[in-house]
Design a protein that fits this description.
Helix 5 crosses helix 8, helix 12 crosses helix 13 and helix 12 crosses helix 15. The chain is globular, with a radius of gyration of 21 Å. Helices cover about 75% and strands about 0% of the residues. It is an all-alpha fold. It has one domain.
Length: about 325
């Protein structure tokens, strides 16, 4: 019974966000949303889109710094193509888990083992998560005194603090090879079926191969801040296009809270949850019309994620191979 429930939960859980999105469209009024959307001058969309290339190049550069530390040999353009393909898959998967589709393409180009490649992607993603957590904390601290009576923001602050503590604990624990390998092998021993144990042991044994020095991750970490700033700047251009009265600094430090809500794996690429949290924040703090918040959040997502994902889709067509890319669950089969 438990297995059946889990099976159906995995199938339908991502639809919760879509239901939320539909409810928001219905409650805010399709005509209001349409009018707000049509009020955006195309020049603002073009300006926001123009920041995509520098953002992608900077993030790829940061990722390549990690690759070099792990002795993963990809050219700049090979890395950029793989990053774009991963972005394409991430743009429509719950929790942006599709980024793991970088791995088979990296495997094809480098011949490195999957455990090492998995750790490489995990490090890049973790640095970005820590960077956005820092932005969120600063943003909430900025407004907590002024809006301390609003329970919503106290709750959000506590959730973020807990998330950061958990992240720091996990990173601190697994950063040491001895501890990390011991726990991972323990999990394999007691949780993985016997016929798959050797495969997963081989996967775990390559996790820490050529693990990067911590000091070498400082610059990629700082570059992560830069890419987040560019993303939220792209979104803020849409805010300006709608004539919404929110200061750039306030938006830069508060919108990440809504963005993080999109990582909850109950929807595809954050749809629904991100819009709902944005409405709660900006309507409460700044009195912005809810349908305008919905529009700048959704259009901003299209400008930053869907457009980049579409470019990744085009790249994936050029990189298509005669054989199908291995599905994620089979990644461990080759170590």
């Amino acid at each position: 019974m438990a297995k059946k429930i889990f099976k159906y939960a995995k199938k339908f859980l991502p639809l919760i966000g879509i239901v939320l999105l539909g409810y928001l469209v219905y409650s805010l009024g399709l005509e209001n949303i349409n009018n707000a959307f049509l009020s955006i001058h195309p020049i603002y969309i073009i300006l926001a889109l123009s920041l995509t290339l520098p953002r992608v190049i900077i993030r790829n550069y940061a990722w390549r710094m990690i690759q070099k530390e792990q002795k993963i040999h990809l050219t700049f353009f090979q890395s950029l193509k793989i990053f774009m393909i991963g972005y394409f898959y991430a743009s429509f998967t719950p929790g942006f888990a599709g980024q793991l589709m970088r791995l088979p393409y990296m495997k094809e180009k480098t011949g490195e083992r999957y455990g090492k490649l998995f750790m490489n992607t995990l490090i890049e993603v973790t640095l970005r998560q820590i960077a956005i957590y820092v932005m969120i904390i600063f943003g909430l601290i900025m407004v907590i005194e002024r809006f301390s009576e609003i329970g919503l923001f106290r709750t959000i602050l506590m959730i973020i603090i807990v998330a950061i503590i958990v992240t720091i604990f996990i990173v601190t624990y697994f950063i040491r090879k001895e501890r990390g390998e011991k726990l991972l092998k323990f999990l394999v021993k007691y949780l993985i079926p016997k016929k798959f144990k050797n495969t997963y042991y081989g996967f775990v044994n390559t996790f820490y191969e050529d693990f990067p020095r911590i000091t070498r991750l400082i610059i990629p970490f700082l570059l992560s801040f830069m890419t987040w700033i560019i993303i939220f700047s792209q979104e803020y251009i849409i805010v300006m296009a709608l004539g919404v009265n929110i200061s750039y600094l306030s938006f830069l430090l508060l919108f990440p809270v809504a963005n993080i809500a999109g990582y909850i794996p109950i929807t595809f690429a954050g749809l629904g949850t991100r819009e709902l949290v944005s409405i709660l924040i900006f309507s409460t703090l700044f009195g912005v019309a809810e349908h305008k918040i919905f529009v700048f959040t959704l259009v901003g997502f299209i400008v930053t994620d869907i457009f980049t994902g579409f470019l990744g889709f085009l790249v994936s067509l050029t990189e298509a191979r005669k054989n199908n890319i291995p599905v994620l669950k089979n990644i461990t089969n080759k170590g």
